[in-house]
């Protein structure tokens, strides 16, 4: 009954008593207007890239993409080539649309390149792909908000060295796994990769804010950094869930 009375009286009274409010949770007042405008551009382009990547995956699954482009070295080289072109092109208002187009090309090729992995996961359990997408979205949003709401703090910028060391450790562990055939090494590398790229979401988000405050307005490059983080998290979660599902089926 107390719960019913609280509900009828509205949430404002309880919010004041507990000290919690949604406005406080999403308080971006510490960000300057130019930074907010820049983040709006970054996440707008990032959303476009996710749509293009998803469309590329769907088209590949439907057989609309030539097989010689799917999941091979040629596609991967094309991704690196477009990234190099994007990095070498000085951002100006005149070439802004061109740079956005290059980014969309990168997103599409990355979608085509990871389609074979998605096909393998679908064979195990199609639900895993949707679950991985939802978990990735939740993780990405939570870590992004944690970084943005840190205000003027720079605590996550100091993660850079540790994250790069983590990438080196992942590479070494995977090499050891390939040479020894150790499943444990592969499992450790997966979970470590997931942790490292979650850390990169914190680091890259705060780095974007830091760079914008120092005059860097390249929202396309900044969106690309976050896109790579999100795709990496999605792939790691999908593989982890697929392996658990496969092991469960084998036990049964």
Provide a short characterization of the protein structure.
With 252 residues, the chain is mainly α. Helices cover 80% and strands 0% of the residues.
Secondary-structure blueprint of this entry?
Layout: H1 2-9, H2 11-18, H3 22-25, H4 33-61, H5 73-88, H6 96-124, H7 127-148, H8 160-180, H9 183-213, H10 219-251
Task: Describe the overall structure.
The protein has 252 residues and is mostly helical. It has one domain. The chain is 80% helix and 0% strand. It is built from ten helices and no strands. It has helices at residues 2-9, 11-18, 22-25, 33-61, 73-88, 96-124, 127-148, 160-180, 183-213, 219-251. The longest helix has 33 residues, at 219-251. The model is unreliable at 1-22 (pLDDT under 50).
Sketch the topology as an H/E string, one letter per element: HHHHHHHHHH
* Overall body shape: globular
Distance between the termini: 47 Å
By secondary-structure content and strand pairing, the structural class works out as mainly alpha
- Please tally the β strands and state the result: 0
| Percent in helix | over 70%
Radius of gyration: 21 Å
Unreliable stretches (pLDDT < 50, length at least 5) are 1-22
Largest sheet: none
Task: Please report the number of helical segments.
Answer: 10
Bin the strand percentage: under 5%
Taken together, the total number of domains comes to: 1
Mean pLDDT: 85
């Amino acid at each position: 009954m107390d719960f019913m009375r609280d509900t009828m009286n509205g949430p404002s009274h309880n919010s004041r008593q507990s000290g919690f409010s949604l406005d406080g949770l999403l308080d971006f007042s510490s960000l300057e207007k130019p930074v907010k405008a820049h983040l709006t551009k970054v996440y707008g382009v990032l959303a476009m890239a996710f749509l293009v990547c998803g469309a590329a995956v769907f088209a590949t699954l439907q057989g609309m993409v030539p097989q010689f482009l799917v999941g091979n070295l040629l596609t991967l080289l094309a991704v690196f080539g477009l990234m190099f072109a994007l990095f070498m092109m000085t951002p100006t208002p005149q070439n802004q649309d061109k740079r956005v187009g290059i980014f969309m090309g990168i997103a599409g090729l990355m979608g085509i390149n990871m389609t074979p992995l998605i096909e393998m996961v679908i064979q195990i359990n199609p639900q895993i792909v949707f679950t991985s997408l939802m978990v990735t979205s939740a993780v990405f949003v939570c870590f992004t908000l944690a970084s943005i709401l840190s205000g003027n703090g720079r605590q996550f910028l100091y993660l850079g060295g540790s994250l790069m060391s983590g990438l080196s450790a992942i590479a070494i562990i995977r090499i050891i796994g390939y040479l020894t055939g150790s499943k444990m090494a592969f499992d450790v590398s997966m979970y470590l990769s997931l942790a490292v790229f979650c850390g990169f979401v914190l680091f890259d988000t705060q780095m974007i804010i830091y760079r914008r405050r120092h005059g860097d307005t390249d929202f396309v490059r900044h969106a690309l950094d976050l896109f790579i983080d999100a795709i990496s998290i999605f792939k790691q979660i999908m593989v982890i869930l697929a392996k658990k599902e496969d092991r469960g089926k084998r036990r049964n």
